[in-house]
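Q: I'm building a small set of examples for a reading group on sequence design. Run inverse folding on the following structure and report the sequence directly after it, with nothing in between.
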């Protein structure tokens, strides 16, 4: 069976962690979690997977170590030793993220989660984003409320690193002029025009490639080990 769009997105999420080595990773959401487990089973075996509470776990969820949240905040977060993948209701052209509210802060049209850990994550260590529905409501020139801090607002923070954004259509980063968003790759079957049409600002499209397909071994792991019930297909329909 040929790889599906969900398989490609899962591998793109795994690629977020390439080169990270022995650091704590906190993938929030289904596809980022699948990607982190796949990365550890293949090209990044030293990743430390957090269960989001007090433990480090292996790819089967078996507890490998104890790491309470206070220890994470004291020894991991402030020193660039973590890579978190968050969601976003809005992402700005320079990497600002909004998960707090839509509309004016004093009178929002829609109340969301609040800023939560966005500021601390983005200024202290590498942060990536997963967006299952790439659209103009998410990709906006300026976010309504800044939760995660982008490149214009984070100058002087040594560990600030907004790494990449993976969506159901593409992979993006902030390698454009003045750290603006750049289209890195489109998933197979997706055109550059389709991505641009679903983005509210101009993207740097100077060096776009195609998102790589899973290897045979990665495809086997996805379908037999990491996500045998195919939950990824419901989040990213083919």
């Amino acid at each position: 069976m040929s790889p599906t769009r969900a398989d490609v997105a899962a591998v793109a999420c795994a690629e977020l962690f390439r080169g990270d080595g022995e650091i704590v990773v906190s993938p929030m959401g289904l596809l980022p979690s699948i990607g982190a487990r796949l990365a550890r089973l293949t090209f990044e075996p030293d990743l430390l997977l957090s269960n989001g509470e007090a433990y480090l776990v292996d790819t089967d969820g078996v507890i490998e170590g104890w790491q309470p949240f206070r220890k994470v905040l004291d020894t991991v977060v402030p020193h660039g030793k973590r890579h978190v993948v968050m969601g976003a209701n809005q992402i700005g052209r320079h990497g600002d993220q909004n998960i707090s509210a839509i509309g004016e802060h004093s009178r929002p049209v829609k109340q969301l989660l609040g800023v939560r850990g966005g500021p601390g994550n983005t200024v202290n260590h590498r942060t990536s984003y997963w967006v299952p529905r790439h659209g103009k409501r998410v990709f906006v020139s300026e976010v309504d409320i800044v939760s995660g801090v982008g490149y214009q607002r984070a100058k002087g923070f040594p560990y600030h690193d907004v790494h990449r954004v993976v969506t159901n259509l593409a992979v993006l980063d902030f390698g454009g002029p003045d750290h603006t968003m750049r289209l890195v790759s489109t998933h197979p079957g997706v055109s550059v025009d389709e991505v641009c049409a679903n983005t509210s600002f101009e993207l740097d499209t100077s060096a776009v490639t195609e998102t790589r397909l899973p290897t045979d071994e990665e495809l086997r792991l996805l379908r037999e080990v990491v996500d045998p019930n195919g939950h990824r297909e419901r989040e990213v329909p083919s």
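Helices lie at 5-15, 30-41, 69-76, 118-124, 192-197, 216-226, 231-235.
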